[in-house]
Amino acid sequence: MLLRSRAEAEVLERLGRPLLEVRGVTLQYKTKQHLVTATYRVDFNVVEGDRFVLLGPSGCGKSTLLKAVGGFLKPVEGTITLKGHTIDGPGPDRMMVFQEFDQLLPWKTVKQNVMFTLVASGKLNGRAAEEKALHYLEKVNLTKFADSYPHTLSGGMKQRVAIARAMAMEPDILLMDEPFAALDALTRRKMQDELLQLWEGTRFTVLFVTHSILEAIKIGNRILLLSAHPGQVKAELNSTGEDAVDETTGLRLSDRIHRLLFAEQGEEVSMTTQLGH
Ligand SMILES: Nc1ncnc2c1ncn2[C@@H]1O[C@H](COP(=O)(O)OP(=O)(O)OP(=O)(O)O)[C@@H](O)[C@H]1O
């Protein structure tokens, strides 16, 4: 029998583990008047290279889950581990991209915005930070705008800067909270295509929040369906990127998702099946 050293055994164990493990996670907000349970005993695993989507109606706790993975909120029950280590605060191994267009520092150029995070986190300095920033700005097709200020950019361009800034940190996982929700329908579709192209080139791992069924199908290779408030796991599905008809059920994936999410309640809570919304 082959005997392995403890270190080797640990490496092998880690290789077999998912990158991110969310186990029985209940998340709550305590306000003076109320105790709000945002998610209840949620389980899911994200493996390296996954485009993992959290999908569910407004208020089901998608953003709260992302915040907890980001390390901004601690579970009252359950555990969240990244590479086998319990998350106990924010860190450069998890970078967030938000919906808002005002994530950039207005007094810094596009390139300086990307460099700022690299320098402030102590990851890179000087010429190395500049090179890394330019490398990722090229990936999001913004080389020409490296010296522009954020106020001169469109909403879609600002989101591309925010994506470049997060990617330049080369995190273990990119956390995206409805990053395209505030864009017009056409730009949103273009950004979805660009994100997929970017993924083809680098195969980064992304945890993506949306309440658009078609966006989830297009972006995700795996989709976690969460029930309405408090968010609980309803199902986990694979997606090939197409809203294809399943031969067994005769249903489109979007119809199946809709049924899974709303079958019991018979309700229509602010979910959309339009790609651009
Ligand atoms: N800071 C907070 N204090 C108290 N309650 C909060 C806070 N943030 C969120 N909540 C509550 O937690 C629940 C989940 O909110 P969350 O924003 O995570 O949902 P969501 O699924 O991301 O919704 P949306 O799609 O509308 O963004 C909601 O009931 C919300 O009102």
TrEMBL record:
Keywords: ATP-binding, Nucleotide-binding, Transport. It holds the Pfam family ABC_tran. The keyword ATP-binding applies. One of its GO terms (molecular function) is ATP binding. The keyword Transmembrane helix does not apply. Residues 22-253 form the ABC transporter domain. InterPro entries: AAA+_ATPase (IPR003593), ABC_transporter-like_ATP-bd (IPR003439), ABC_transporter-like_CS (IPR017871), ABC_transporter_ATP-bind (IPR050166), P-loop_NTPase (IPR027417). Belongs to the ABC transporter superfamily. This is ABC transporter ATP-binding protein. It comes from Pelomicrobium methylotrophicum.
